[in-house]
Write a structure and sequence with these properties.
The structure is a single chain. The protein is of the alpha/beta class. The chain has one domain: Spore Coat Polysaccharide Biosynthesis Protein SpsA, Chain A (Alpha-Beta Complex). It has a seven-stranded mixed β-sheet, sandwiched between helices. Strands 7-8 form a two-stranded antiparallel ribbon. Helix 1 packs across helix 4.
Length: 276
């Protein structure tokens, strides 16, 4: 439920100057439906993002430069550490972790703000709220098993349960892990995972249908492709490790009609893009 006494804090990772304005606007919109005591911390993972000013910069309470060593995952670790140095965070305070793409690449609107804030307000201790995706079967990654993952564009948890997620950057400086990832002619191979994971990575990174998979699928930079694969593996590890530790993944869209509506809106946006 809406609780004006608890704090609600967004830790937002900023990469793109042209995404910053909407990301701040919608972050503030979501927070306004959760609590009266709100904070926004922006972690800049690029110099470009920090130099961009917007009409919503007054919403920013804390800001810092991120290392970008683990993309949004290292930024969330760094941002949370910074905020904890500045203010006290109680167990029932809500933490929202987002990257600046959360309101882009799909038809994001006040309807999504409503779905997200409602789900966060209904969350109990032990639950991590986000956009939940399911595998067709149980998967194995780095000796951890699971059957679902939470999309890393935006997720929320009570401070009491932050241990279910930390560290966000599960791969970090594990050079052996990174070296085990092979990208060969549109196929991802990774010895520390099952075939389902490798098929999932290959289909997402190299989609055969327009509008599917990674929005930057035309990328030809092998280093960037590998970094994106590492980010996806971090996303999956974050989710299945959370469940292994006793956490529960809860959807922003618990009702079937919500998911159907989102699918329709995505298809409609893709159709309009084809016409333009």
């Amino acid at each position: 439920m809406y609780d004006r006494k608890r704090q609600a804090i967004v830790i937002l990772v900023s990469y793109y100057s042209h995404y910053k304005e909407n990301a701040l606007k919608y972050s503030a919109d979501i927070l306004s439906k959760i609590s009266d005591k709100v904070k926004i911390c922006v972690v800049y993972n690029t110099v470009e993002a920090r130099t961009q000013t917007t009409q919503y910069d007054h919403f920013i309470d804390f800001e810092l430069e991120g290392s970008n060593k683990g993309w949004e995952f290292s930024a969330w670790d760094e941002g949370l550490a910074h905020v904890r140095q500045q203010i006290n965070i109680a167990d029932d305070d809500v933490l929202i972790f987002a990257n600046d793409t959360f309101c882009h690449h799909w038809p994001f609107s006040s309807l999504n703000v409503k779905f997200i804030s409602q789900a966060i307000n209904c969350a109990s201790f032990g639950e991590v709220v986000g956009d939940i995706k399911h595998f067709k079967q149980t998967i194995q990654l780095n000796q951890v098993t699971g059957d679902a993952w939470i999309a890393s564009y935006l997720l929320a948890v009570h401070m009491k349960d932050i241990g279910l997620l930390l560290p966000f950057d599960k791969i970090g400086c594990d050079d052996d892990f990174k070296a085990s990832i092979l990208v060969n002619h549109g196929k991802i191979e990774f010895a520390r995972s099952c075939a389902e994971i490798q098929n999932h990575l290959s289909t997402y990174m190299f989609p055969t249908k327009q509008g599917k998979g990674w929005y930057n699928a035309s990328c030809k930079n092998p280093e960037l492709i590998k970094l994106k694969v590492i980010a996806i593996l971090n996303e999956i590890l974050l989710s299945i490790t959370c469940v292994q530790r006793g956490g529960k993944l809860v959807s922003f869209h618990p009702q079937k009609w919500m998911r159907s509506l989102n699918r329709f809106r995505r298809k409609w946006m893709a159709f309009k893009r084809k016409l333009s």
